Amino acid sequence: MRAAVELAVQDINAAGGVNDADVVLESNQDDGTDPDKAS
Fold first, then answer.
1. Is 18 exposed, middle or buried (0-12, 13-18, 19+ CB in 10 A)?
2. Among residues 11, 26, 36, 39, which is most buried (max CB within 10 A)?
3. Is there a contact between 13 and 25 (Cβ–Cβ < 8 Å)?
4. DSSP character string of the chain
5. pTM for this prediction
């Protein structure tokens, strides 16, 4: 999934970005759905 989003961001930026600004992909690391890590 992340690779697809990164490709989309590259395509958007190659076309001039959004309102002439590059899109920056920011992501937090997902630790999964371990209930001990939630909340």
1. exposed
2. 11
3. no
4. -HHHHHHHHHHHHHTT-BTTB------PPP--S-TTT--
5. 0.66
